[in-house]
Design a protein that fits this description.
By secondary structure, the chain is mainly alpha-helical. Among the domains are: 85 residues, Alpha Horseshoe (Serine Threonine Protein Phosphatase 5, Tetratricopeptide repeat); 60 residues, Membrane-bound Lytic Murein Transglycosylase D, Chain A (Roll), CATH 3.10.350; 64 residues. It contains 16 helices and 4 strands. A two-stranded antiparallel ribbon has the order 1-2. Strands 3-4 form a two-stranded antiparallel ribbon. A hairpin with a 6-residue loop joins β1 and β2. It is elongated.
Amino acid sequence: MERLFFRPAVILILFLFAVGCATITPVQKEGPPEVSRPETGKKESVLEKETFSEPDKQVPEVPGKEMLPDPFKDLPEKYRLRAREFEQKKDWPNALFCWEIVNSFRPDDLEAGRRLQEIGKAAATQYEIHFQSALEHLRKENPAAARREFLMALAYRPDDAQTLNYVKPKVLEEDYVIYVTKKDDTLWSVAQQVYRNESMQFLVGYFNDLKAGGPIKPATVLKMPRLQAALAPKGGTSSAEMVEKAKSFLRARNYEEAVSHAEKALEYAPKQREAREVKNAAYYEWGTELLQRQEDRKALRMFKKADENYKDVKDIIARIEKRLQKQRETAEDHYLRGVRHFLSQELNEAAREWETTLSLDPQHPRAKRDLERVRRLQMGLPLSP
């Protein structure tokens, strides 16, 4: 028999294994915990209780399949209650807001629809009360009180452009007079009321973009500088300064600019004599220069824009019109000569006569048309219909 030889390490491992197996205590496998039923005192396992004690209990559905609760379900009723509370306090803006929320969730809700209409009318009434009160404060030159009333009006109409414009800081400045127009008010009457001076009406129009003689709607809020600031209108140019500029242009023979500045001054102060004098002088000198250049028709237009009683304007107009009438008669003579040349097939002579006709009377009813025809014939082109 062959002898077996073991290494010392192997012998040691076998020895430890044998000792370990002899000392390990087997672990008893425990079942589910037991509980006692209160009726019988009998113990039963939890597993048995949960699984078999209620066989008729329905198994829950798979998560995700059940209906989720509506998070907005109670919101309309909450705002309905709030709306009623605000109504009791006569807080119409907040009540209106709450009813709008109810109506947005339930468009067919009869109460919400009815209250929206009723409160809307009440809010409109309150808006008008505060707005008119603000205008009254403006008439009494109390901008602080007017601002408060305008802000209260905005609570009922937050987006009202007219009211928003009134509460802008620049509208209620202390250096300005606020005037609320009445029926049949004019620039003249406003100037009398505000400045006690009708000649100041140009300021009323200038600062409010109103034309002289134009209508002013009642309840229009006008803003004008106080008397101490009246000589510094917007843009830094007063009516008197406009007249001075007009004079300067007149001396420089820039008649167009002279007339423009004079008319602008007259637009806001129709009775200002100096501005009217500059305007008449500009048209008179303008027409005179055109006469010297033998531009009678243009000159006539300039003289007719001046006052007929200014200097000898009336006589000049009569002389020009008489001369133009003679020119029209002469123009007709040249036209008829052109017709005779045309019938004789003398196209060059006909063209010259009709050119003379148009130089004397540019508005001749037939010369321009016939001249175009004869020129087409000279070029060998067919006549246009």
